[in-house]
Specification:
Layout: H1 13-24, E1 52-60, H2 64-71, H3 77-90, E2 95-105, H4 110-127, E3 130-138, E4 148-159, E5 175-180, H5 189-195, H6 201-207, H7 215-224, E6 229-232, H8 237-243, E7 250-254, H9 262-271, H10 275-281, E8 286-292, H11 297-307, E9 312-319
Parallel strand pairs: 2-3
Antiparallel strand pairs: 1-4, 2-4, 5-8, 5-9, 6-8, 7-9
Helix pairs in contact: 1-4, 3-4, 7-11, 8-10
Length: about 325
């Protein structure tokens, strides 16, 4: 039997329209007044920059969505989505200015999507950027009912002279400092889900802690002019992500002696995973790693105390 209408074919335009109206109705300075148009817009004050450089990034939440679905909790993954994008902007010394989301689903479930969207707005508030637009696609023949995927896109801006990393200024003996993670963030979930027993619901809930957004910390550090480079520690762990910001001939030498969130101990114990594999997969307690000259350590430590955030000394640059 032929469907005879778009709704009978599985796409309900009305549900999609109601979801857009819900987003437009969220009371937050992070929600652009242009939501619902064909493209998002944001203003950049030309007086603030002599040579502005715009940065773009995109990312998703990965199989953390399966944890959220298993626990029927969607209130944190929207924050994760923003974090995974804007942290990549922040480590370049830039200010996030705009964020867009893409939601693909088998069926628009308004209650679920509204919960996700509240998280996205919260993430934008924490990042200090605007939710300037997005897209929700109902794709019944690609996703089963109840299934969905998320993608995020962010735009940032920085003065050209302040763009990180500053590889030419990096030297052997420079120090590597870390901003602590709050847990697993949004990487390594494919392994974590397979080793943590489903009955350990407290541990599964620990996996849903949202990725920390480092806007406050990285803004203060970038403004200080003391940071030579910074890396967002995501899939691949500390060493491989940190290597992306270094000039040829230098490597990060880490002691791995800092405090590690307990969730990693549990994953390692249940999965009988070797230390090397843990370090290749997970952030192991470091959300962002950054480089400073040894002579600037005291100044950076004072800055962290004044701005009320924690830094960890985790290694140094070595020849390699």
């Amino acid at each position: 039997m032929k469907p005879g209408s778009y709704a009978r074919a599985g796409v309900d335009i009305g549900r999609g329209d109601r979801f857009v109206e819900f987003i437009k109705g969220i009371r937050s300075p992070a929600v652009s007044k242009g939501i619902g148009g064909f493209s998002g817009a944001f203003e950049v004050d030309p007086q603030r920059y002599r040579h502005p450089v715009f940065l773009t990034t995109t990312d998703g939440v990965g199989t953390k969505l399966l944890v959220a679905r298993s626990l029927a909790r969607m209130d944190t993954v929207g924050i994760d989505l923003v974090a995974m994008c804007v942290n990549d902007i922040l480590v370049c010394g830039a200010e996030p200015v705009a964020f867009l989301d893409y939601i693909a689903c088998g069926r628009v479930d308004e209650a679920t999507l509204e919960e996700i969207m509240r998280g996205i707005v919260t993430g934008c508030e924490l990042a200090g950027c605007s939710l300037s637009g997005g897209e929700t696609a109902e794709l019944p023949d690609m996703y089963a009912e109840g299934e969905f995927d998320l993608a995020g896109f962010a735009v940032g801006v920085v003065e050209r002279d302040n763009l990180l990393p500053k590889q030419r200024q990096m030297r052997e003996g420079d120090l590597v400092l870390g901003l602590p993670s709050v847990g697993i963030h949004s990487n390594g979930l494919s392994l974590a889900r397979k080793v943590l027993p489903k009955k350990e619901t407290t541990l599964w809930a620990e996996l849903l802690k949202p990725t920390k957004i480092y806007a406050r910390e990285m803004t203060a550090l970038a403004k200080s002019g003391l940071v030579l480079g910074a890396a967002h520690v995501t899939g691949g762990g500390l060493e491989s992500n940190f290597a992306r910001i270094l000039p040829e001939g230098l490597v990060g030498s880490f002691d791995f002696s800092w405090p590690v969130p307990g969730i990693f101990d549990q994953i390692q114990r249940f999965g009988r995973i070797q230390d090397g594999e843990m370090r290749r997969v997970f952030n192991m307690g470091i959300g962002i790693a950054f480089v400073v000259a040894a002579r600037d350590l005291a100044a950076v430590e004072r800055l962290a105390v004044e701005a009320e955030f924690e830094i960890l000394r985790i290694g140094e640059l070595a020849r390699g």
